[in-house]
Structure formats: structure tokens, C-alpha cells
Design a protein that fits this description.
about 240 residues; alpha/beta; Rossmann fold; 7-stranded parallel β-sheet; binds 2-amino-2-deoxy-6-O-phosphono-alpha-D-glucopyranose
Length: about 240
């Protein structure tokens, strides 16, 4: 049964998630974090950077694995998730650069790279705390509707609606990558603790489906109901249909 924390607004929700991450790192400095991109976690990363600057959190011994990356975008492409992570977090805190993993969207063999990425997560002992956002169609990472519950890190096709949603970040819709590498739902499920952050009215319907409808692969986030340690951190707008 997921825990649901309702916060008055997006800033309070972001602060709450930053606090949960800070507590987890304090309890286990050599933590393995699973990190997410998208518009939603930007403020959380701002709070973590502020916490680092005032000495409340230290990433020196931490490792991170990002959920996903577009296929075909290099690290220096402004829309790549590697670029996002450097800009919003890694360049401003003290992670060891050797321990911030993001799938390589330009790997020669993306299929082999994806399974090596999955194995690397296992090699370091698995993810302690996985941060997630949610797509309007219920996707987590880039596990689109229909993704198998047991899926592993792999190459996926993006849903049409995801390509459309992300088109605003690119000069034209045909520049949006059509494929990505994403951690699988099974991979995400192996995290010891999962924190889902969702804010804004555009997420209200899918949050209701994810928490109140029976778990189904057609709404990947609804499968989180079956995990033993999940916290949904929501602002009032995202929680408005609960
Ligand atoms: C993206 C990412 C997801 C993210 C989601 C929501 O496509 N792959 O990891 O959670 O879509 O993004 P946003 O926070 O911008 O709504």
C-alpha cells in the first residue's frame, strides 16, 4: 500500500522529496540513488544543491543511476538526460564523476549497453532509493503502457503521446528521438524504496488511476501499488482526484 503525502504546492512537495533523499543519504552515505529527469524534479534538485552548499548533504560516497536516456543524443546535446543531470545536479554537488551513471544514448550497441547497465546496478548492490516522475499516460522512466512488469533495462520505442509532449523541448517534432534506453519496471521494482513525485493538475487523472484503480500494465505507475515501500509525494493539484 503506497504512502501518500499531500503537500500544499509544488515547492513544498519538492522540498519534501529533497528532505527524504537527504535523510536517506545521511543514514547511508554510500547510498545508491536512482534519479529521474523531466520538469518535475528540477526544484528537488535545486533544494539538494542548496543543502549541499550549506553542508546538510554530502554526495561524496554516493552512486547514482538515472532511469533513462534518449537514443541518438550525445551527452553534450542540451536535451539529453546526461546534460540535464549535469546542469541541474551533478555539476553543483560532490558526486564522484565515476559514480554518476546515465545510459549512453550513443552506445555502439544500445541493446548490449542496456543489459550491461542493468547488471551494473546489481553489481553495486541495487538501488536504495529510486526517485520517479510520471508521464501523463502513466509511464515511469520510459516504460510506456504495455511494458511488462518484469521488464529489465532495454531499448524501447516512445509512445506517440510522449513524443508529442516532448516536442516542445526540440526545434521541431521530427527532432524528438523515437527510441530510448530505460530501466525496466522489474529493475525499478528492485529498489528498496521508491519515491514518486507528481505535481500539477495535468497529473491528477493518472495519479488517481495509479493509486485507486487495480494495478495494470496499461498504466505502468499503477504497478507501484505492488511494491512494499513506495511514497507518493503530491501537491494539491496532482492529488485533486483522490
Ligand atoms: C519523461 C521521462 C520520465 C518523466 C516523465 C514526466 O518523458 N522519461 O522519467 O517522469 O516524462 O515528465 P515531466 O516531469 O516533465 O512531466
Amino acid at each position: 500500500q503506497p504512502i501518500v503525502l499531500r503537500c500544499p504546492d509544488a515547492d513544498a512537495a519538492s522540498r519534501k522529496v529533497a528532505d527524504l533523499i537527504t535523510e536517506a543519504i545521511t543514514a547511508k552515505p554510500a547510498i545508491v540513488l536512482g534519479l529521474a529527469t523531466g520538469a518535475t524534479p528540477i526544484q528537488t534538485y535545486e533544494h539538494l544543491v542548496a543543502g549541499f552548499r550549506n553542508g546538510r548533504v554530502d554526495f561524496r560516497h554516493a552512486t547514482s543511476f538515472n532511469l533513462d536516456e534518449y537514443i541518438g543524443l550525445e551527452a553534450k546535446h542540451p536535451q539529453s538526460y546526461r546534460y540535464y543531470m549535469q546542469q541541474h545536479l551533478f555539476d553543483h554537488v560532490n558526486f564522484s564523476p565515476m559514480r554518476t551513471y546515465v545510459p549512453d544514448g550513443c552506445a555502439d550497441d544500445p541493446v548490449a549497453h542496456a543489459s550491461a547497465y542493468d547488471q551494473e546496478i546489481g553489481r553495486v548492490g541495487g538501488i536504495d532509493l529510486q526517485l520517479l516522475g510520471i508521464g501523463r499516460n502513466g509511464h515511469i522512466g520510459f516504460n510506456e503502457p504495455g511494458s511488462p512488469a518484469a521488464s529489465r533495462t532495454r531499448v524501447v520505442d516512445l509512445a506517440e503521446v510522449t513524443i508529442k509532449n516532448n516536442a516542445r523541448y526540440f526545434d521541431s517534432p521530427d527532432q524528438v528521438p523515437k527510441k530510448a534506453i530505460t530501466m525496466g519496471i522489474g529493475t525499478i521494482f528492485e529498489a528498496k524504496q521508491i519515491v514518486m513525485l507528481a505535481t500539477g493538475a495535468s497529473k491528477a487523472k493518472v495519479i488517481r488511476q495509479s493509486l485507486l484503480d487495480p494495478p495494470t500494465e496499461s498504466v505502468p505507475a499503477s504497478l507501484l501499488q505492488l511494491h512494499s515501500s513506495v511514497t507518493f509525494v503530491l501537491d494539491e493539484a496532482a492529488a485533486s482526484e483522490l
